[in-house]
TrEMBL record:
<dbReference type="InterPro" id="IPR043502">
    <property type="entry name" value="DNA/RNA_pol_sf"/>
</dbReference>
<dbReference type="InterPro" id="IPR008042">
    <property type="entry name" value="Retrotrans_Pao"/>
</dbReference>
<dbReference type="Pfam" id="PF05380">
    <property type="entry name" value="Peptidase_A17"/>
</dbReference>
<protein>
    <submittedName>
        <fullName>Integrase catalytic domain-containing protein</fullName>
    </submittedName>
</protein>
<dbReference type="GO" id="GO:0071897">
    <property type="term" value="P:DNA biosynthetic process"/>
</dbReference>
Amino acid sequence: SLGLKLNSTSSSIIGVGSMTSAAQSACQTTVTSRFSDYTINTTFHLLPVIVQSLPSQPVSCNLINIPPRIRQLLADPQFHVPGVVDVLLGADIFFDAFQQRKLPLSHCSSLIQTRFGWIVSGKLPVVTSGNTHSSLAVLEDSALALFTTHAKMSKAGEEDKADHHFMTTYSHSPTGRFIVRLPLSQSPQVLGDSKLMARKRFFALEKRLASNPVMADQYKTFMAEYLALGHMELADLSFQGPKYYLPHHAVLKTDSTTTKLRVVFDGSAPSSSGLSLNDIMLRGPKLQPDLINILWRFRLHSIAFTADVEKMYRQVAVNPDDCELQHILYRSSPEDPLKDYVLRTVTYGTKSASFLSIRCLVQIAHDCADTDQKRIILKDFYVDDLLSGGSTWETCYTIYKKLQATLGSHGFTLRKWCSSSTELMKHIPDTPSDPNFVVRLGEDGIVSTLGLSWQPMSDSFRFVVKHWQPSLHMTKRNLLSDINSIFDPIGLITPVLIKGKIFLQQLWVLKMGWDDPLTADLQLRWTSFYSSLQHLNQVVIPRKVILNSSTRVELHGFSDASQEAFGACIYVRSVADNGQVQVRLLTSKSKVASLRATTIPRLELCGAVLAAELIHDVLGELRMLNIIVKPSDVHLWTDSSIVLAWIKSANLFQSYVANRIARIRDVSSQNQWKHVSSIDNPADLISRGVNSVDISTST
């Protein structure tokens, strides 16, 4: 705006805490005092922002007694009003500008005379603020180096700040939808130019789409719907404030029953200042239970149902004041001009998107007087997926109607309803405007929910292992990808997968690099193991673990260890009022043993800790559903007489044993621990592993 000639530069300005600012332009100019003939000529390096507005809070001038004659000679007559800092002088100029005169003021502050006029310095009477800012200028390569450091917030403090920001800034539209502000940790002024970067990324995207016409059509359809729903609109190009442009790309999800292609936006793409939108965003706290807890409860219901929130993120509007940080560049055809749009809703790919959308659900729950609805919204959602259930189909139908009304009033529409109860499915009507409102499946139909394959008609879990084609160059990196492709969050096939994890650990022993090719012998062993996983397609595991009309529920936890691995498993034993008894595996967990030499009893002890912690956590989920398990009906089993003696002993132990015994006693009772023979210990399968052919016969 000053019309100065800019020169390209590439300087990294490093300050306190190794914080780096990238200066890409510099200029030579002269600075002259308003009160004397003092003049300097120097080089200035340009940054998007020097520091946030100073002072951080307005200063109470009434409490500062500045003499009238000096008030006319202040370098900044508006020093008491928060304002933008335009220039920061280096140490060589800064001290040369100081003169000798100094006048004390009240409140530990002083008037100091400089060649640019009088300045007020020291502790000033301002409104208390929780924000802390500090700045420092240093001379680097005869240039001005400037930077700002912010007191680093702890993770908990940052999470609290994000939650407080939501509570004090959210609102509702006339239709009941949530309108939120983006939780920023810094001023968007620190962002540099991002349009050039977004433009380059879009042209690269266009080239990729040109080589894949099917994907190009899906991309065009997705963006056309985005525009038609009002989730984005043409930008107001007259806006002069800070902006941020989000690059975008396609993500394919072939197993989706609705949207096979999704456009994802990149909030981590750096602007010319080196900072991205995500860099100045607060992530927010974790608001929902762990996946494993939701899946445990899903198995405890007599009748189960699933659903998800349609386009959950995009049902939450972003305050128009923040939409300028969500620009995108797009055109449907290379022949069209490239247009500038703004996204009007919470956007996946931005750091706070998950927190903002989930926090809206949490707020709905807090505002809900119905305790059952509140529990389900708080405890049975994992992001936008709902996994819940009830004791009867009538109970589930009541939940369905209430959730549709409560969540729908805020724009969150539940769809893709599916249930193990045919009666419940009869009462949930099809919706002509949404063919995916209800998922109606045949006898063998499978629903993918939170990574698990559930067959509602048989009410069982299945594993879908695709035909495996070994890589031409087998490496440790490829093998890790292979084993992670089998998703088993609650440990239904732990004994099979532990064999693969033990094999991977052996590669570490051999000191193989991530991309070192495996020897022929190792390739043969892995091929034999992974090819056999096809047998998992035949495994059928009932979802429901408790009999209907149970009068008694018991929990049995088993632990075991070998030199290679240790683990634990939890079984539920239920007794119905007619005397029928059923025992089902609920969950299991394993860990590969440390490469450091450890005795078997110590590894057995680690397995016992796992069993105690698992059973403690499972008891919490049972209580949440009002399923009562008496302390006398909780049983923990180990085949290690040494571990059993440690748990029941009053002796003092060395720290390794003492710490783990203390943990076991903290989450379980000594009298719950019993001995089981190795041949009768199901956790023995976890510690040594089994072939996938044999897992279906293991109970």
